Amino acid sequence: MKWQIDTHHDQTLLRDYLRNVCGFSKRTLAQVKYHGGKILVNNEPKTVRYVVAKGDIIQVIFPPEIRSAYMKPEPIPLSIVYEDDDVLVINKQPHIATIPSIHHPNHTIANGVLHHYDQQKLPYTVHVVTRLDRDTSGLLLIAKHRYAHAILFHSQQKGEVKRTYNAVVEGIVKPSSGTIHAPINRDPNSILKRMVAEDGQEAITHYCVLNYWSGHSLVELNLETGRTHQIRVHLSDKGYPLAGDTLYGGKKQVINRQALHCIKLEFVHPITNKRMVFTIGLHDDIKQIEQNLKNNG
Q: What residues does the Pseudouridine synthase RsuA/RluA-like domain cover (predicted)?
């Protein structure tokens, strides 16, 4: 990555330029400095205490990315919505984990992304920005290298990475729009479940009902925070569990997984600073719910 110093940043500490202008976090700079990367000014190595001058060419060379030994490339089908040198947007299918875990050590989206990189001879590992649960479908954002991930992570912390979801829930949601503001913590009786709890982390979900079908509601949701299982926990706590979400009280009468789909993704591109907006239709099994409910109603 290269930048040229302009008049505005003349006589700035290199550390401050990299942090405040280029978006490097302390952690990312430490990885560069101590794990085999380089910081060059006019092709000469410099420390972050160097004072830059107008016209200087700053170059950051990242250390080689090391893939975890347990994460292997696999030819997993990927529905790629968008790709450039820095980011990857995928329309994730249901019934597949985003990254490996104890319960799902392989056959994940991450394994498929590594295979995709190998096909293009890209020496990257996987940097997931917007992770989706195994049975949630829809738009998923991945940074292709450390620099893009550092910027997007910082942007996400500021609430600038936005996701919109559609969900089919059991019951007639009333009122038809509103905000659920309820803290979330781990359920002490489960290794997987979360629950609304006074001592939990702040969690805010905005919702709006789009349609009603035979005792079910199609709801659009926007997250102001990004807690684990936030939508599933908030709606279940209000008495409207997601259809198919047996972990949080839903039934599998109309679908065999939680009926949750990320339909819209918005973020500022980490390199071009361009506003990126992607939308995708509902997955086929959620589309089918409407027809099934009408037939059975």
A: 86-236
Q: Is 131 a residue whose pLDDT tops 90?
A: yes
Encoded tokens for 232: 């599933």
Q: Residue 210: in which H helix or E strand, if any? A: strand 204-213
The residues pairing with 221 across neighbouring beta strands, listed in sequence order, are: 165, 207
Catalytic residue from among 133, 135, 245, 285: 133
Question: Distance between CA atoms of 186 and 192, rounded to whole angstroms?
Answer: 8
* Res. 115: pLDDT tops 90: yes
**Final residue belonging to a domain, choices 32, 61, 90:** 61
Quote the number of domains for the chain.
Answer: 2
Percent of the chain with pLDDT over 70: 99
Is 71 inside any structural domain? no
132 neighbors 108 (Cβ within 8 angstroms) = no
How many alpha carbons lie under 13 Å from residue 126 in its C-beta half-sphere? Answer: 26
**N- to C-terminal Cα separation, the chain:** 59
pTM for the whole structure: 0.85
**Is 269 part of any domain?**
no
Residue 115 is encoded by which pair of tokens? Answer: 């295979």
Boundaries of domain holding 32: 2-61
pLDDT in tens, 142-177: 999 888 998 898 888 888 999 999 999 999 999 999
- Catalytic-residue membership of 135: no
CA distance 271 to 273: 6
